[in-house]
Amino acid sequence: MWQNHANKNELLLVIKGELKLKLNTEKEILQEWEVYIVPKNVDNKTVAEKES
């Protein structure tokens, strides 16, 4: 499901496994212990193949 936080940034931290992040114009794959900050007002969607 796509989401958007109009008034705040969103911090993503992968503790275990892998997280696929889809943004307006790019895709990222985050590994264990990686952090990503999604800027406010950016459409994003996260996908985890396994629990993360």
Task: Write structural notes for this entry.
The strands form two sheets. The chain has a three-stranded antiparallel β-sheet with strand order 3-2-5, with no helix packed on it. The protein has strands at residues 10-13, 19-23, 27-30, 35-38, 44-47. It has one domain (10-47). The protein starts with 9 loop residues before the first strand and ends in a 5-residue tail after the last strand. The chain has no helices and five strands. The mean pLDDT is 92. 0% of the residues lie in helices and 40% in strands. A hairpin with a 3-residue loop joins β2 and β3 (27-30). The chain is an all-beta fold and 52 residues long.
Write the layout of secondary structure elements.
Layout (H helix, E strand, L loop, with lengths): L9 E4 L5 E5 L3 E4 L4 E4 L5 E4 L5
Antiparallel strand pairs: 1-4, 2-3, 2-5
Q: Could you tell me the radius of gyration in angstroms?
A: 11 Å
**Rough outline:** globular
| First-to-last CA distance | 17 Å
Give the overall pLDDT as a whole number. Answer: 92
- The count of strands amounts to 5
Strand adjacency order, main sheet: 3-2-5
Largest sheet: 3 strands, antiparallel
State the order of secondary-structure elements, H for helix, E for strand: EEEEE
- Give the total of domains: 1
The helix fraction, in percent, is under 10%
Low-pLDDT windows of residues: none
Q: Structural class of the helices, strands and pairings?
A: mainly beta
Count of alpha/pi helices:
0
Instruction: Estimate the strand proportion.
Output: 35-45%
